[in-house]
From TrEMBL:
GO terms for biological process: DNA integration; DNA recombination. This is Tn5520-like integrase. Transmembrane segments: none annotated. Keywords: DNA integration, DNA recombination, DNA-binding. InterPro entries: Arm-DNA-bind_5, CB, DNA_brk_join_enz, Integrase-like_cat_sf, Integrase_catalytic, Integrase_recombinase_N, SAM-like_dom, Tyrosine_recombinase_XerCD. Pfam families: Arm-DNA-bind_5, Phage_int_SAM_5, Phage_integrase. It comes from Flavobacterium beibuense. One of its GO terms (molecular function) is DNA binding.
Length: 411
């Protein structure tokens, strides 16, 4: 949490005037940034951070000082929206007036990557590096400005990706990254809203063409019934999949970082890394069995699952470890599917997709499912829907434990 205050420097100049400065405090560190005014100490109202009426130019100066303070608060809000744990140096750079309106698309992306790296969000940094390399692998103009990204340019970029084997899903990922960057640029005043190209260019047309990846409840039961004594090398993958499925599709990264301290009575309480949404999930019986099994291992790290084996790993090491374990997890899920007779492709993401699909099959509406999974974009479009309490979602999740109803056989 950062705090902002307009105040005076401790020492006066040789003329006996005190420089007016902006002081920002974050993480117990202080940054002092000079503002364009000086005044006599008797003309300064420290409590309100403004000039007294005794200063002959107090009206104009106070108006400018207020604008400076609002500008500083806006920058903090921008970092918050960008989910960047900014440094004081980053704040000062933006406050001192980097000419955002003249920043190129390439430099804008590079700055975003740097912010992610400084915040330890190496996964997000790598994602945008991929988009940067892909987009400017097609665009030769490294000085491209946001206003030059038109619907026509996006169509040509889409065609370029298709010639290189891109699928609808993969192309949609790149386009969503560019759309996010464009929205950030609008918010920072880099480009005007009327240049927004995604009104004419619709990313929604890139929806996948219908490969149903969700497992049915019966197929999930096949995985539950896998005999790990007979297939001990598949025990971990089975546990990871079922744990994710019965915790509303918890993703692998959040499972990896889940600690015993996240268990509060009959609930798992955690903050989702991707969206920063807070979750309080009822522990269903299959999850409890998995927790009981791993509790016996008594790891000194405090992590529930044996993925991160030390507490002092750096962000890059964590990302590398995640990649290695996730690759093995998906490889073992393929073996599980072959072993139990599931013909669909099973990956870590299928657990999340199956959770949503099977709740829908159990009769729950899209609104409660989207909230259960923390889909912020859907919540934004459905703000008129009533909010469901955690207890309602827990009751809905418990429906996954019920056996499927037998089909009626007509005479």
């Amino acid at each position: 949490m950062a705090t902002i205050k307009i105040t005076l420097k401790n020492k006066p100049t040789t003329e006996g005037l005190y420089p007016i400065v902006l002081r920002i405090i974050k993480d117990r560190k202080v940054k002092i940034i000079s503002l364009p005014f000086k005044c006599l100490k008797k003309d300064w109202d420290e409590a309100n951070g403004e000039l007294k009426k005794s200063d002959k130019n107090y009206r104009v100066r106070n108006r400018i000082l207020l604008q400076k303070k609002e500008e500083a608060l806006k920058i903090i809000d921008e970092f918050e929206l960008e989910k960047v744990d900014f440094t004081l140096a980053q704040f000062e750079k933006r406050f001192r007036g980097q000419k955002d309106k003249n920043i190129t698309v390439r430099d804008f992306i590079l700055e975003k990557i740097q912010n992610f790296e400084l915040a330890g969000r190496t996964g997000s940094a790598r994602t945008y590096e991929g988009t940067l390399n892909s987009f400017f692998g097609y665009i030769e103009n490294k000085q491209l400005m946001f206003r030059e990204i038109t619907p026509e340019l996006l169509e040509k970029y889409e065609n370029y990706l298709r010639t290189r084997g891109g699928t609808d899903g993969g192309i949609a990922v790149r386009m969503r990254d560019i759309r996010t960057l464009f929205n950030d640029a609008i918010r920072r005043g880099v480009v005007k809203k009327d240049a927004y190209p995604f009104i004419a260019y619709k990313i929604s047309k890139l929806k996948g063409k219908g490969i149903k990846r969700a497992l049915t409840r019966d197929e999930v039961l096949l995985i539950e019934n896998l005999n790990v004594e007979k297939h001990p090398h598949l025990r971990e993958a089975k546990n990871f999949f079922l744990f994710s499925y019965y915790t509303r599709g918890m993703n692998f990264y959040d499972m990896m970082k889940l600690k015993w301290s996240n268990i509060e009575g009959d609930y798992i309480v955690y903050t989702r890394s991707k969206t920063k949404g807070n979750f309080k999930i009822k522990i269903l019986e299959p999850v409890q069995q998995i927790l009981d099994e791993y509790r016996l291992e008594n790891r000194i790290t405090g992590y529930i699952f044996p993925i991160l084996l030390r507490n002092d790993l750096r962000p890059k090491q964590i990302e590398e470890r995640k990649g290695k374990k996730l690759k093995k997890f998906n490889k073992d899920l393929k073996l599980i599917a072959e072993t139990v007779g599931i013909t669909k492709k099973v990956t870590s993401y299928v657990a999340r997709h199956s959770f949503a699909t099977n709740l829908r099959e159990a009769g729950e509406g899209a609104d409660i499912i989207s909230q259960a999974m923390g889909h912020h974009d859907i919540q934004m479009t459905q703000t008129y829907l009533k909010a469901f309490e955690d207890e309602d979602i827990d009751k809905a999740s418990a429906k996954l434990l019920r056996e499927p109803e037998p089909e009626l056989i007509s005479a």
